[in-house]
Amino acid sequence: MRYSNEFLISELQRFVEENERPPTKREFDTANGYPSLSVYKKRFGSWGAALVAAGITGTQTYLTSDGVRRLKVNQRNGVQCNQREPQDRNSPEYRAWRAAVIERDGVCQGCGSNEDLCAHHILPWRYFKEKAVDVDNGMTLCGECHLKVHCR
Fold first, then answer.
1. What is the pTM of this model?
2. What is the sign of the dihedral through the CA atoms of 118, 123, 124 and 127?
3. Which of 64, 111, 142, 143 is 20 to 30 Å from the Cα of 117, by its Cα?
4. Under 8 Å between Cβ of 150 and 116
5. For 94-136, how does the pLDDT look when each residue is reduced to its tens digit (9 = 90+)?
C-alpha cells in the first residue's frame, strides 16, 4: 500500500494526540494499527526525520552519568540534535579540542572514512560542560556517521 506523506505525518500526530507523548520506534515497528517503521524510514530517510516532519521533537533519550534519563531535542538536516550555543563552537578552546580529537583518531571511528571528519562529544556537552573540551570525551566521525549517531 502506498501512503502519502500527509497521511504518514497525520498518523504520527494521531499517536501523539492519543498517547500524549511521542511514539517510539518499537511501537511503530510492531504496527499497532499504524504504518510500519520501515515505511517511515523509506519515505523520510530516518525515523528522526519523520518525527521532525510531523513537528515532533524531544524523542530520543539517553542515560546521564548520574542515572537520570534526559530528552535529547533535535533539529539538523531534518533531524534535531543537541541545542548549541554558537559562540562556544567558535572559541579557541573548542577549535583546539576539535583539532586534537581529529588528529588523534585520524579517521572516522564508525566507518574508517577520512572525508568530512568532525569531532563528536561522547558525553553531550550541553549536560557535561566540564567535559566540553576534554579530548578523552571526543571521537572522530564522518558527517554521515555523526548524523547516524544523533538520529538513530
1. 0.45
2. negative
3. 64
4. no
5. 889 999 999 999 999 888 999 999 998 887 777 677 888 899 9
What's the half-sphere exposure (Cβ side, CA atoms, 13 Å) at 62?
Answer: 16
Residue of 124 and 4 predicted with greater confidence: 4
| CA-wise closest residue to 118 among 93, 134, 95 | 95
Give the three cell numbers for residue 93. 578552546
* Predicted pLDDT at 152: 54
| CA gap 16, 4 in Å, rounded | 19
Q: What is the DSSP string of the chain?
A: -PPPHHHHHHHHHHHHHHHSSPPPHHHHHT-TTS--HHHHHHHHSSHHHHHHHTT----EEEE-TTS-EEEE---BTTB------HHHHTSHHHHHHHHHHHHHH-S-TTT---SSEEEEESS-TTT-GGGTT-GGGEEEEEHHHHHHHHT-
Report the phi/psi class of residue 46: left, alpha or beta, with left for phi > 0 and alpha for psi in -120 to 50: beta
